Amino acid sequence: MKQFGGPVLFLDRSDINTDEIIPAKYLTEISKQALKPYLLEDLKLEGFNPKVDIPGKKVIITRENFGCGSSREHAPWALEVNGIDIVIAPNFARIFRQNMFNCGMLAVELPEKDIDDMFRSFADKDTECSVSFNEDGTAKVKLISGSLSKSYHFRLDGFEKALIESEGWLGYADKNF
């Protein structure tokens, strides 16, 4: 199975919508790679500069309702081509969340108290994330910054786990149909 984790980008805002993830004017691009330079370019968040803050990041930790707005696969694709394969939030727009798993990416839902703790403990630090999976569908997100380390537990349902193991819907369909 693919390894998930890496440097974390903290986005301390709720309701980041798909138009902010990838502006609609780029939806005519014919390759995923063409979306790469435009990820989060319309996100308005004090102190955030996508050209400086995104490169090298592999994980986003954010607030509730990430991926709301228009339904489009382009939003997870733009994350994917930038090397971001995990978004952690209290909840997601339903279609966005499913599109993440369809692409073999993780949309991890954690209780708001855990997200608050992540921001309080790690947002102002260089932070690494790792994810480990157990056979029973339970999993763990571990954040590390210097000597500080904390773990947060979550669960994947059987189909989500199968999509992750197959690296997305296409791999799952190839194995099963």
How are the strands of the largest sheet arranged?
A: 4-3-2-1-5-6-7
Got a strand count? Answer: 7
Helix content: 25-40%
What is the chain-wise order of helices and strands?
EHHEHEHEHEEEHH
Gross geometry: globular
Strand percentage, roughly? 15-25%
Major sheet:
7 strands, mixed
| Class based on secondary structure composition and strand pairing | alpha/beta
The rounded Rg comes to 15 Å
Query: Quick check: average pLDDT?
Result: 95
Write the layout of secondary structure elements.
Blueprint: E1 5-11, H1 18-21, H2 50-53, E2 59-62, H3 74-81, E3 86-89, H4 94-102, E4 106-109, H5 112-122, E5 128-133, E6 138-145, E7 148-155, H6 158-165, H7 169-176
Parallel strand pairs: 1-2, 2-3, 3-4
Antiparallel strand pairs: 1-5, 5-6, 6-7
What is this entry, summarized?
By secondary structure, the chain is an alpha/beta fold. Helix content is about 30%, strand content about 25%.
Can you give a write-up of this model?
The chain has 177 residues and is α/β, with parallel strands linked by helices. It has seven helices and seven strands; from the N terminus they run βααβαβαβαβββαα. The mean pLDDT is 95.
Output the keywords.
single chain; 177 residues; alpha/beta; 7-stranded mixed β-sheet; 7 helices; globular
